[in-house]
Amino acid sequence: MEEATRGFVIGILICQIALSIVLAAIFLIRPSLTSAAGWKIVAFIGLCVLPALCIVGGMNTHVQRSEQTRFCISCHVMIPYGQSLYVDSPTPIPAQHFQNHRVPADMACYSCHADYTIYGPLNDKLQGLKRIYMQYVSTPPNPAAIRITGGFKNAQCLHCHLGARNFEENPVHSAMIDSLKSNQTSCLTSGCHDTAHDVANLDHAKFWKAVQ
Amino acid sequence: MRLSETGMRRLLQVSSALIIVGLLLEIVSLVWFHPLSFVLFAFIAATLIGLGILVYLTSLVFIVTPAAGNRN
Predict the structure, then answer these.
(1) Cα distance from B56 to chain A (closest Cα, Å)?
(2) Complex-level ipTM
């Protein structure tokens, strides 16, 4: 979703919330209005239907927002990971995907770090809450020491690459496709695409500057 | 348990107040671009709004209607 569309959706939601607040304020000041039949319906809409819709709209907006790259790197420990997307080198996989728009630039993190299963998005949100807990209550980890629990799953690469001509026609990929699908051979740690976010060496890296 | 008209009005006011506070916090969470804004929305704003809706629905269930009074 584009930035302007997102802003429009949030604007509509805020208007809906404002209307709900006005209706709720009426019943806060004059609860006796509900004695009339017409106002009973207004009360039901203002104190039940609209607030419920505001929760649904708010949840939807927050879930979509949490998929944005700038949301992910708004956490302090994620800043080096955001910088690593701009490394001027053909080796790091995330930088290549981000800079060449192989993934949507505004959803770069989520494209590769989403669990593409039925409850995947929910699991991602729970993981995110765990990280917020670590940031504010427990001890935040050193960015270079952060590791994905259970390792990076091939499914996150195959979600896009499986079925793509240049992937399947590559003899190395086609020879081990079953092993890749079953996650027995890792795309990242088996020696083929072994440079991801090299945040420990960012100080020595050269960075690409986008024109726009 | 049956509620009097005054009790019903009190519940409506409590419900309205909870919903207003929850909705105001939801606006804050929407304009604040920060990882904690999700926590603010999901754990505080949505809870308050949900409680407000629940209080309102409770007031509907336990209200004394004139028809019920006549029947007795």
Answers:
(1) 7
(2) 0.84
